[in-house]
Specification:
alpha/beta; six-stranded parallel beta sheet; 16 helices; disordered C terminus
Amino acid sequence: MKKNVLQIIGSFHQGGSERQAVQLVRLLSKEGSYRVFVICLSGEGVLRAEIEQLGYSDVPEFPLVSFYDANTVQQMRRCAKFIRGNNIEIVQTHDFYTNVFGMAAGALARVPARIAAKRETGMRTAAQKFVERRAFNIAHAIVTNADAVKNYLVESGVAARKITTIYNGLDLQRLSPAETSREKILQEFGLPVDEKMRFVIIVANLRSAVKNHQMFLRAARKVKKKVKNVNFIVAGEGELIAETKALAVELGLEKDTFFTGRCSKVAELLSISDVCALSSESEGFSNSILEYMAAAKPVVATAVGGASEAIVENETGFLVAANDDQAMANRLIELLENPGKAKAMGLKGRKIVEEKFSVAAQIEKTLTLYEMLSNRKKFSKKRFGFLTQIRN
């Protein structure tokens, strides 16, 4: 008889955590060993369509306003009731908010296997770190998407025995461009139709300042002074888009920088790009870097999080210090001026993705973790005060 596993997803926006969560639902559903349930904190986002295509037309929603109000307690109790009613044996969460909510609800429902996640280093306030640490205490396992994140947790006091690194998996077939005509792609995105024009792209949401698009644009200005026939593409959506466009104008890049907004055709954009960049101040393990490499493009990225676990320095790309826009500009210029080197780097990056970051490896390691948790003899039954309060 199949065991029931619950995936708790924050929302269906196109963030890295959300995309990986939706992908895991798809992989588990296809593999078939477990019966998969899905709930969310917010039903909004374009990835909702992918979940619906998998047969999840009615995803229960547990909306939160704050972790410190009566509604949160009510939603946790409601979630615990859902878990008990569906005989859930494994609860898995994917980010800060679902960690806190899902681990507490899972503990209330006495779920025998609770799996939290950590996908970034830094980014959290002291209060958030305190709350998330409580969630990790009542988790039976914590999945990190890079060894850098695992090390960060261990250094912060989380027991290493609880932590398993499962790299983000990339479905190479889903990233194959449907359109291969460069001219048509350029026309569709309103980009200059010029054979000599080269493009540097950054794919990152504009919802968080941590993606540091300012660094990318400062580097772009330096590149523009040295390299002719180069334009810059900013692919992503979010509330910071207006101020990022304003900075491009301030830097004199308004005619050279193209903002695509939300983009469902990233593969097409990558196919016409020459070099790919990521300027984050903090990361876990970037999906964008894997997508760049899968598209056989050289990468220039900040040396944060798990970037060094994907990028081989001077072989598949370059790593630079966070906020060092001069170093990023220098590396971008080097690749733009040496297309042969850039192509060789991209091809080697593609090979690494095929060997190390496949969806097959992701699902295999996930199933191994499920089996290990299911077969353990006994979990600690230690109770925490705040859970007792919620039960009452």
